[in-house]
Design goal:
This protein is of the alpha/beta class and 483 residues long. The chain is built from 23 helices and 8 strands. It folds into 4 domains: 98 residues, GMP Synthetase, Chain A, domain 3, CATH 3.30.300.180; 176 residues, Rossmann fold (3-Layer(aba) Sandwich), CATH 3.40.50.300; 75 residues, Helicase, Ruva Protein, domain 3, CATH 1.10.8; 91 residues, DnaA protein, C-terminal DNA-binding domain (Chromosomal Replication Initiator Protein Dnaa, Chain: A, Orthogonal Bundle), CATH 1.10.1750. The longest helix is centred in the first third of the chain and has 23 residues. 34% of the residues are buried. This is Chromosomal replication initiator protein DnaA. Belongs to the DnaA family.
Amino acid sequence: METSGEQTAADVWARVKRRLRAELGEDIFASWFGRLELDSVVEGCAYLTVPTRFLKSWIESHYVDRVLSVYRSEAKDVERVVIGVRNSLGRESLPQRRTSDMSRPSTPAPMPMTAQASEPKVPSLALPHEERTENSDLGGAPLDPRLTFESFIVGRSNALAHAAADRVAHAPNGQVIYNPLYLHAGVGLGKTHLLHAIGHEMRTQGRRVIYLTADRFMYGFVASLKAQTSLAFKERLRGIDLLIIDDVQFIQGKQIQQEFGHTLNALIDAGRQIVIAADRPPADLENLDERVRSRLAGGLVVEVTALDEALRTSILTTRIEALKSIHPTFEVGPNVIAYVARSITANGRDLEGAVNRLLAHATLTGSAITLETAEIAIRDLVRNREPKRVKIEDIQKLVASRYNVSRSDILSERRTAAVVRPRQIAMYLSKVLTLRSLPEIGRRFGGRDHTTVLHAVRKIEKALGEDHALSDEVELLKRMLQE
């Protein structure tokens, strides 16, 4: 009889699944109900299981009424539906846990979920296992536990970005502000740290957070297209409280960009928070669809600028103090810290690399860290640091001095060979060593047209390939300007 009862329950469940597939469509069914299994039916309660907590939470939040309604149409004696998570050791037998010996420790059974129950409380996403499960379902990346607001060092270059991030993370009652919050900066200046800090803080509030890099977003969308589950992928993304996208400048492909734009619109219209990071402002993301750029620019756009020397000193001091708790003999004097802060100006990652080199020298050789040893230890970082920002005025002055003409001659309308060649070289160097556009360079050279600048650049480029002496001369000018 027991076997017959189990077979009957299995037949009913098979009919329930067929009806759910027909009513909801193949995409939604495959995404949300393909891994939903019947465990047992006990005392009018159907115990169902799924492999992840994310699926459990989503079905409870969005489809439990539909599941119960379809189930009752097939089996009148079913009054409740309970959804549990299958553990890694196999199927979780929910009714057996209820009736097992209470003196033995066991995992509590999940609370029943009925069609009349109030909106289920979303479980806290702060637990590492839950975070891994939910992110893996969405193709998301885990948050780095080291990157919190507490470990972020604030200085002049990042104060505004930090304040905006903190306001978003601590908004009262789930209020959405600065939507989207868009942070942009060069490599290693702390924008990703702030993204993770926001995610950590909102997870501690029980909010549903997904952190995606651009490549993970693209991979997830393309994978869902291949598996014909793109509708479910979109629904999952739009059912969260905070979407974090890092390195948005790498999102490519017309269809993917369109979906990204639709996702932004859906989340913003639904009052969900979005935080974006990139290496440039929205207007400069030339590969992105114009409507997406406009949407990104419609929030709060904040730049994290280069780290000033005081902030670099603070970062170094903090990192060294943290390492001293592990390596008590690791001592770095203030003069060495000041030297490293002055020498390494590119980004925070190079500062981290400098500290690691100093630690390796101290622990491997057993000798004290002096200015001389620090100089040797960070030599490669100093040599490979970003070149100095060159100004057009500096180029004009150096070229004029080198060719025995005045700067006013270079800016003038004079067309003698003694002036034309230095002027063209100065225009070429301005194009190569600065980020100025051709029209801007033309304006800085006496209000000339951009076609004049383009002609000069092309003429010098051709001459460099033919005249080795000129090539050596121009290379020398480049080094002098960048030192």
